[in-house]
Design a protein that fits this description.
Elements: H1 11-21, H2 23-49, H3 73-80, H4 122-140, H5 154-164, H6 168-183, H7 196-209, H8 220-236, H9 253-272, H10 278-290, H11 310-325, H12 333-347, H13 363-375, H14 382-397, H15 410-423, H16 425-441, H17 460-463, H18 469-481, H19 483-486
Length: about 500
């Protein structure tokens, strides 16, 4: 037989037969191996020559710039923390130091390594606060005159108060008073039912004195409504802020109404350069310039007779100084202020006091004369020093600053407070010690100020329990307590 049994075949023979039988399987395995090898080579090659998906390349938002470097570790840690939106805060500086027990809740992330902080001495703190105030003023109110920068922002106000001896209670009283004004604003934006132009002007001055503008968080809408009312009514009456078409109203109020409302508009325009007010401010200021009497002062109804009225003149001078600060170059303003100084000289007595229409002087009007003289390039004038000395001496001897006293006079104190701060030195130290606590402590629980028992001439509104009375007292007291930052002393 030709076929040998299977078991008699050699091993090599059997292997050759099996390989021949499985040639198709071998070819398949070889092809698969080649595919795997080629695929792996392509992947490795691409990984070597292609950039990462997140690497910055030319074009797009970056352009030809290089890819940004990775942020430092501390920035990466901050980015990993959840962002919590802050609630808007009111521009009132917190000046009190609050102490608590040792069971403090720590819901914030502590630094991994504590950083020792060198305690600041008084000089360093003052320097730091001053620089912060300057930065805040530059950032929040570009173009605001330097004398008004102290009011712009909580940091600036706190710094000014610290340097001038302001207390926490004064700032709290200001805030309570502003909130009372907000709550008692008329629907049309004005304040009070009588003497509306003046009371609206006083209210706006109070808000502006605290740096509150139409975009402020808590008081923005209140300020905007008040300013819109002045703008609409002033435009309607062609710049007559007494809101009269002919003349200046009945009685003696018109010139006061006009000057106080104009004062408020000028301050606002100085702070914002709101062009809506540009023409109205020029018209209103123009009436004051034209209304000046030959002796350099002003009178009721803007009459032109002899012996001008120091009280009327005081408000016109304040309005003109605010007009000067606008930088608008309104014709006649500086010249009118120059002439006004001659009239103030005319009514000053040898003892330093200032009279009503002529010497001898009165305590209630001396602050008017001193402040207005100081306001207009006369801070080194001998009359200012004589007036300050008379004011301090007479307050100490005859007219103590007592809100509930028989000689209380908010009108005189309004001027005295500003004059003493501007003058500085021991005069301010004494006046600040007399007035600050007294005014702040006299505030009613609702934020307004109660009637006073004043015998001073023209003090009806100080004593009146209703009508314009509460608005007049409250705004004068707010303006007094804002003195620490409202106007910076020009010689400091």
């Amino acid at each position: 037989m030709d076929d040998a049994p299977e078991k008699s075949k050699s091993f090599s023979k059997r292997l050759q037969e099996r390989i021949a039988a499985s040639r198709f399987l071998s070819i398949s395995l070889l092809l698969h191996a080649i595919v795997v090898i080629l695929g792996g080579s392509v992947v490795l090659f691409k990984a070597y020559v292609e950039p990462s998906d997140f690497e910055a390349a030319g074009g797009g938002l970056v352009g030809d710039e290089q890819a940004a470097a990775a942020p430092p570790e501390e920035m990466q840690e901050m980015a990993s923390e959840a962002f919590v939106q802050e609630q808007p805060t009111v521009n009132a500086p917190t000046m009190d130091v609050i102490t608590t027990n040792n069971s403090l809740q720590t819901n914030f992330k502590m630094a991994s390594v504590p950083t020792p902080v060198k305690p600041l001495n008084t000089g360093d703190l003052t320097k730091t606060m001053t620089e912060a105030a300057k930065s805040a003023a530059r950032g929040m109110a570009k173009g605001v005159p330097g004398s008004m920068a102290g009011r712009m922002g909580g940091t600036a106000r706190a710094s000014a108060m610290m340097k001038a001896g302001g207390k926490e209670k004064a700032e709290k009283a200001v805030m309570a008073g502003l909130r009372w004004l907000k709550q008692h604003q008329n629907e049309d934006g004005s304040w009070a039912e009588e003497n509306r132009p003046a009371m609206t002007g006083f209210a706006i001055l109070s808000f502006l004195g605290h740096g509150e503008l139409p975009d402020s968080v808590e008081f923005g809408q209140t300020v905007k409504k008040g300013l819109d009312w002045l703008l609409a009514k002033g435009t309607e009456f062609q710049g007559r802020m007494s809101m009269t078409r002919d003349g200046w109203g009945g009685g003696n109020q018109g010139v006061y109404e006009h000057a106080i409302a104009t004062y408020a508009m000028c301050e606002y325009f100085s702070m914002t350069k709101d062009e809506r007010f540009a023409e109205l401010v020029k018209q209103a200021v123009g009436y004051i310039v034209e209304g000046q009497a030959p002796d350099g002062g002003w009178q009721y109804s803007y009459a032109k007779g002899p012996n001008s009225d120091t009280s009327v003149s005081g408000w016109q001078i304040q309005a003109l100084k605010a007009a000067h600060l606008t930088g608008a170059g309104i014709p006649g303003v500086d010249e009118a202020l120059d002439r006004a100084m001659l009239n103030l000289k005319r009514v000053q007595s040898e003892d330093g006091s200032f009279g009503y229409r002529e010497p001898p002087g009165k305590y209630s009007l001396t602050g008017v004369g001193v402040l207005c003289t100081y306001f207009w390039k006369q801070e080194k004038d001998k009359g200012v020093r004589d007036g300050i000395e008379y004011m301090i001496r007479t307050t100490d001897d005859k007219f103590p600053v007592k809100y509930k006293g028989k000689d209380a006079d908010l009108y005189a104190w309004y001027y005295n407070t500003q004059a003493c701060l501007m003058f500085g030195g021991s005069a301010w130290s004494k006046w600040n010690r007399w007035f600050q606590d007294e005014i702040a402590d006299a505030q009613s629980p609702d934020g307004s100020w109660p009637p006073v028992n004043s015998p001073a001439a023209g003090a009806e509104l100080q004593k009146k329990p209703d009508g314009a009375g509460p608005y007049y007292r409250t705004t004068l007291c707010i303006l007094m307590l804002e003195v620490f930052y409202r106007y910076m002393p020009i010689n400091k």
